Amino acid sequence: MRITSRVLLLPALIGLVTACTSTPAPPTYRIGFSQSVSGGDWRQAMLAGMERELVFHPEIQFLTRDAQSSSRQQQQQIHDLLDAGADVLIVAPNDAQALSPSVEEAYRRGVPVILLDHRTTSPHYAAYVGGDNTGAGATAARYAAQLLRQRGEVIEITGTPSLVASERHQGFTQALRAYPQMRVAGTVTGDWGTTTWQPTLTRLLQQHPETRLIFAHSDLMAQGAYEVCQRLGRPEVRIIGVDGLAGKGNGLEMVQQGRSTASLFYSPGGEEAIRVALKILQHQAYERENILGTIVIDSTNVLTLQQQAVKLASQQAGIEQQQHLLHTLQATYASQRTVLYGLLASLLAAIVLGASAWHAARTNRRINRELARQNEANDAINRQLSTQNEEIRAQRNQIAELAEQARVETEAKLRFFTNFSHELRTPLTLIMGPVEEMLTGRNGTALQPSQRHELGLIRRSTQRLLQLVNQLLDFRKIEVGKMAVQARPDDLVAFVRELVEAFEPAARVQQVALTLRPAEPTLPGWLDRNVLDKVFLNLLSNALKYTPAGGQITVSVQAAAEGRSLQVLVTDTGRGIRPQDSPHIFEWFYQGEQPGTGKGSGMGLALAQGLVRLHQGQLTFSSQLGQGSTFTVTLPRELPAALRAPNPAEPLDISMDEPLALPVPEVEAPVPEAEALVLVIEDNADVSEFVTRKLRPHFRVQAAADGKAGLQLALELIPDLIVCDVMMPGLSGLEVVARLRADWRTSHVPVILLTARNAPEQQVEGVQAGADVYLTKPFNPAFLLESVRTLLANRARQREHLSRELATPIDPPQAPHPDQAFIQALTAQVEADLTRTDLTVEELAHALGFSRMQLYRKVKAVLGTSITDFVQSVRLQKACELLRDDSLSVTAVAYEVGYASHSYFSNSFKARYGVAPSEFRARHQAGVS
């Protein structure tokens, strides 16, 4: 009876054991991966990243195909993967155009496609994962500028012509434009290898020995550049590569060993592609565009990244070993389960045959205990794998934190260089002195009404430019909420009319009709000129910048919303705004497609919108491509008390935020002789006051109490003449004269020495030091006054002589030593930048070691002309030479000598030589002198 019961219960027990030991298998997905070529460390890193991510997902079946750089083969492989039942396709295209049909077919079959590293022309893809090649090139340019302190020549080694090489080259060259002192000496087309292009690089380095940095599009080409520099004995050349992979011979090792200065980590994107595929399979939200960031790897972080890479590789090896052990244990478990089934079958047979059921039960209990131990071992392995996963996630978080830190540091550097570049405020302030003298009549010159009007425009524009530089970073104030509106009752029509008048001379030069159309004679309201000035000047500047010759700019002022609002419309007939640029036109630093002469900073419109919003208004625009644009500023007529100035009767300060890029030549009015500046350096207060009082009715006079202060003041003011005592504490008068003569900025300034030392040898010593006149105390004040006048008159005649020479020869005019060296250096600097249309006086001054005002006074004192006239003279003389060459058109000649506008070049040429450039060429060809 007992045996019979066991026989009847045994099938039920076997079914129960089978049900308990058989767990439902998790769903299995297939991910197909088709890549154009698997060769190279970077491609291997991409595949290794995918396999590393899939370690945590054993339910995924990974199907890979290698097209061996054949687009046709890759098309066939994609079809094979679709036929194999792939649930998601990851495609690294070889040819964007050729693979588009395959992507379309996958779309029709309902299979999501993830594009990796390259795009296709088809829009039907689920997601894109890849790096920002343009951003990588821009990062390399900014890092190169940081290494070279924004000055020097660089060489670029591009990869085989492709979209990747083109985007990196574009990003590199565009970012370098922010650093005028940096120049690309040459570009070498590489092959992503290390040898075939090395002879070309060798010749380029020999032709440009001043090259200080090489940017290679891959670490492999950076290795080749390193070998070339070693052979040429040029270890000082910095080298930047791209990829930043770990492993022998790759970017991390090169930076660590000093073979390259830095490497840009360009993520292969394997892990990210698998993560996106898993989100798609699990029906989770995901990003369609996954642009991977770029990290600069240099000596500051290479050791940390190398250690992290080694630890990550070690952990990956540990995970793989644990996975192998887990598979072994699972196989053992499966085999033991098979044994269990056999034993149960044997037990059934033993029971049927009358075998011992007790032995079978004992065996059963033993097997169960073994299974429990195996389960405990599996649990321990799973816990260890979980710990390893947590460590990997921590490493990833640390890398992300490093990337964020690098981004913050880069932004801080950009802010620093932006602030530093706007410290050139003093030269603009110094323009106001002569203008104020002429406007107030203190120089004794009677001004005609037209002259007074023009000088008033100069003064207002200079005030705007000065305060523009001071407030260039107003957008930072807007972001942190530190800019306040201080509105006062004002007339909008009069306010806008002043701004339009400031633009009329520039509009005439560009042959653009500028019209103001107020709907009413006056439109009163609450206005903050300091805020709105920036808005309207930016809009007018943009309109003038993009309106061609013969175009029309109309500024309309009107009431709106039944008189509750005021509107200013700036309408131009320029090229218009492209539809793809319209959504981004008010974004910070956004620059759409712009003509070569219209490049801006990308801040003007964004700043204008922010300022209008501060004024509780609205800035909108409408545009038609090829027909023009209209920008509309709508302002409330009334403002709350919090936005009104405490004392509305206070005078208004006019300011701007961004300099106007007007194509008008700089005009620097000559200083009348009565405005000559005399610097008196005297330590005796009574003598100083006496000399100053005698000279002040006739000249402008500044005084210094000792030699050190006088020398500093002379370098700052560049006076027309210096009266200096010999015996002074600290620096003596002779030492002051010697230093003045040794400095280009003051080498031309006449010096009168005053002293009680009247011995002949002492007078000879003063003249040998460089003094023009040696007066002994007590001296005749009338003689001192006449000596000053005579020296200034002689200097004026010398300037007139040099000015006549400047009008005819192309070689720099001869001047007495040491001024000749200065003129030669100035001429050479202008000729070096001859083709630049945006060359400024500030850049010339910086290149020669001057401030802007120092250079202006130096040129004025030596040549009797303005800096602009001198630069224009050199340009036009070079134009005469080029016009004799029939191979260049007149427009090409204009560009070669730094003119962005053909009409402006023709007008300038005709104004100087009396004939148009085309007529000059025709006379030359006909043999007419």
UniProtKB/TrEMBL annotation:
Group of enzyme by EC: transferase
Keywords (A to Z) from UniProt: Coiled coil, DNA-binding, Kinase, Membrane, Phosphoprotein, Signal, Transcription, Transcription regulation, Transferase, Transmembrane, Transmembrane helix
Residue intervals passing through the bilayer: 339-361
The HTH araC/xylS-type domain, residue ranges: 824-923
Catalytic activity: ATP + protein L-histidine = ADP + protein N-phospho-L-histidine
Domain Histidine kinase: 419-639
CDD domains given in the database record: HisKA, PBP1_sensor_kinase-like, REC_OmpR
Name of the protein in question: histidine kinase
